[in-house]
Amino acid sequence: MHRDGLARATTKQIARAAGYSEATLYKHFEDKTELFLAVLHERLPSLAGLLAAEPDGSLRDNLVAIAARTLAFYHDSYPIGASLFSEPRLLAAHRAELERRGAGPHKPVDGLTGYLRDQQRAGRIRADADCAAAARLLIGGCLQHAFLDTFAQREYDPAQAQQRAAALVDTLLAGLR
Fold it and tell me: Buried b vs exposed e over 136-147: b needs ≥16 C-beta within 10 Å?
């Protein structure tokens, strides 16, 4: 599913890659949609892990770490997640499952907005700064990098991700301070 996307991956290919028969696959999953949702929830990091900040870390260091993890998250999830949009039934099932779990694509922005507001209250960010807009800019910049890398079929490069994270954060902080 990661290599070919959900729409092109067959249950026979998925079962073979996992070392099982297609019949065994159907003993555990009702259909490809259920299997896909299980893979997404198992393979993708938790929001808490993505947005973790060191209590003693500087604002910049914490944001760079968050951005670097977000870049890795989107790089890993973009190819398979983009498949959701090719099948309306799958997208609807995924959206319903996320709602049932109290999750969704807005959660990283919400979590980062909360962190930035805490930093604002501590005086590390300008009092008039729009923390929600800043969170959307940082998370959106990470998503854009993942899209471009996926489009160009570039492999994930941790050193490049770290540089990108620092550049995004430094630009963002120039406006927040």
Answer: bbbbebbbebbe
Cut 0.90: pTM above it: no
pLDDT > 90? residue 94: no
| Tens-digit pLDDT profile for residues 21-45 | 999 989 988 877 778 777 766 766 6
49 vs 112: which has the higher pLDDT: 112
All structural domains of the chain, each given as residue ranges with its CATH number in brackets, are 1-43 (1.10.10), 46-176 (1.10.357.10)
- Mean per-residue pLDDT of the chain: 87
Question: Which residue type occupies 137?
Answer: L
Give the residue carrying structure tokens 């902080």: 173
